[in-house]
Amino acid sequence: MVCGIRLTIPRDSIVDTTDTTSDSPLRAFLLGPALNLLIVVALTLLSLWLVRVAERRIAARLTREDGDRERQARLATFLNVGKHTVDAIIVGIGVMMGLLVMGINIGPALAAAGVVGLGISLGAQTLIKDYIGGLIILAEDQFRVGDTIEVAAVTGVVEQVTLRTTVLRDLRGRLIYVPNGDVRTLANHSRDWSRAIIDLNVNLDADMGQVVTALEQAVARATQAPELQDKLVGDPEILGWKSFNDWAVQVRLMAKTRPNEQALVSRLLRQYALAALNEAGVRLAVPTQDLRTMPADAVPPPTG
After folding, report:
1. End residue of a domain, out of 109, 124, 157
2. What digits encode the pLDDT tens for the residues 149-177?
3. Which of 109, 130, 150 is the last residue of a domain?
4. Residue from 145, 184, 182 nearest 162 by CA
5. How much is the pLDDT for 275?
6. What percent of the chain clears pLDDT 90, i.e. is strictly above it?
7. What tens digit of pLDDT does each residue of 236-266 get?
8. For residue 4, is it within any domain?
9. Pair (184, 200) in one structural domain
10. Is the pTM of this model over 0.85?
11. Quick one: 198 exposed, middle or buried, by C-beta within 10 A (0-12, 13-18, 19+)?
């Protein structure tokens, strides 16, 4: 006798141990936000590379077309500042896009950054003003290293120019730092050409024709002097009688010079002028005081 047992198991009670959907979230992440983030990073790096390539090409073109080394240095500084600014903008945009593709809400972060930026801007107005002033100075090429300028009641030779400050060396040798935000009105004594001005005082009774003749001889000698030939731009001018006061008549010489050569030209022209006036017998005027004494009996008695 054969006994058979038949076991019936419901279909819905069977558990499939092969999970074919366990990798679906990872696959969705890799094909979704991760891929988008990789694209954002790649585009950001590509943009930074393009900016660097453009900066190098512009710098090379400026070097070929402009032979002025000082101007090249200024343009290179301005170009470097612009490159770093563009880089910061690209990185900021890349970070925000990366957060967006990752599903992170950047609204609160932007609001907080705006509040922080407002606080920093209010606390650093002077610093921002200095940097903007430095950018304008560089862009307009208002002065260069080696120029003699007068700014903020200070006169000196420019030794260094940065985005925030301009460094001057005055006649006493002092190193003066001028914030670029304070550069409102400046006088550049060295741009393109300079001018030497020599004022001489002669006696009130001096023969002005003789004075002018002597100065003409001095100018002729000065223009032939080897130490002045490469420093003058044109012949010096004799203005003759410029003004007078109660003790002298003032005559003036002027000479157009190369940049930053006015001090040397003034000194040498004054030497030639004094020598020519001495040869002509013209005496320079000096302020004098006339003191007179009276006898005691000649003093009238006090009245009243």
Report:
1. 109
2. 999 889 999 988 888 889 999 989 999 99
3. 109
4. 145
5. 92
6. 24
7. 999 888 888 878 899 999 999 998 888 899 9
8. no
9. no
10. no
11. buried
Structure tokens, 108:
């609160």
DSSP code string of the chain:
----------GGG------SSTTHHHHHHHHTHHHHHHHHHHHHHHHHHHHHHHHHHHHHHHHHH---HHHHHHHHHHHHHHHHHHHHHHHHHHHHHHHHHTT---HHHHHHHHHHHHHHHHHTHHHHHHHHHHHHHHHHT---TT-EEEETTEEEEEEEE-SSEEEEE-TT--EEEEEGGG-SSEEESSSS-EEEEEEEEE-TTS-HHHHHHHHHHHHHHHHH-HHHHTTBSS--EEEEEEEE-SS-EEEEEEEEESTT-HHHHHHHHHHHHHHHHHHTTPPBP----------GGGSPPPP-
CA angle, corner 193, sides to 178 and 198, nearest 5?
95
Range of the domain at 145: 141-188
Tokens, residue 151: 């700014």
165 and 242 fall within a common domain: no
Are 146 and 194 a contacting pair, CB within 8 Å?
no
Residues 175 and 203 grouped into a single domain: no
Residue 47 sits in the same domain as residue 105: yes
Q: In the chain, how many domains are there?
A: 3
**Within a domain: 298:** no
218 and 160 both lie in a single domain: no
Residue 295, domain member (yes or no): no
| Residues 201 and 270 grouped into a single domain | yes
* 107-123 vs 125-140: helix crossing angle, rounded to 10: 80
Residue 288 lies in a domain: no
